[in-house]
Design goal:
By secondary structure, the protein is mainly α. The chain contains 6 helices and no strands.
Length: about 210
């Protein structure tokens, strides 16, 4: 009886394992970019809805009545600075400097959390003065767009916490850093969407 192993019974070698992992990583990356594109389509639809309804105030408050330059400028500075320092975090981890990586990551999280806090305060103040989503088409479209963006920021903050857990558990391995790269892409998309919100929603209202 021959002792030769059949192809099915032969152990998987390192090259086979490496190729499988690389194929899996490419598939995950492709799936992630497809998700980001679908998210972009969602925001395009919300922007289009706002463009149609922004003039329908139904006799209620208009954009010029509720938007404040100082608040929106501060929110913009917080979120855009957060996207910048998250990039510095990735550079720190890639260079093996864990202290810089965790420090910049903590700063990005703090800035993002402040952004969400100010946005929640803004929504609460609007509702308290009678400017709720039920008041008019303009406010419905405004809350839908800005709150959806705020939800994405919140998801990004939760993602940062899970990323920290992975870094502490596994260290800055290739797989973990790839997760961080996807987080950075998501966070930068959020920043780009906010620039659109500021340009299309807040700035025209403030300048009215």
């Amino acid at each position: 009886m021959s002792s030769a192993m059949t192809p099915e019974a032969q152990p998987i070698t390192a090259p086979h394992t490496s190729a499988h992992l690389e194929d899996r990583a490419r598939t995950e990356q492709m799936g992630y970019w497809l998700y980001l594109m679908s998210d972009a389509i969602l925001f395009v639809a919300l922007f289009a809805t706002y463009a149609v309804l922004h003039a329908n105030s139904a006799g209620g408050p208009e954009a010029s009545d509720i938007f404040e330059f100082s608040r929106t400028a501060l929110n913009s500075a917080l979120l855009l600075t957060s996207t910048l320092v998250l990039g510095f975090s990735g550079i720190g981890f890639a260079k093996g400097n864990k202290g810089a990586g965790f420090g910049w990551l903590a700063a990005a999280f703090a800035l993002g959390a402040l952004f969400v806090g100010l946005e929640v305060q803004e929504f609460a103040a609007l509702v308290a003065q009678g400017a709720s989503p039920q008041t008019s088409g303009f406010l419905s479209a405004y809350f839908a767009l800005v709150a959806t963006h705020g939800l994405h920021v919140t998801v990004g903050l939760i993602w940062m916490l899970t990323y920290v857990a992975l870094l502490l558990y596994e260290g800055p391995t290739r797989r973990v850093l790839a997760n961080g790269n996807r987080l950075a892409a998501f966070w930068h998309m959020i920043g780009i969407v906010w620039i659109g919100i500021y340009s299309v929603v807040y700035l025209p209202g403030i300048l009215q």
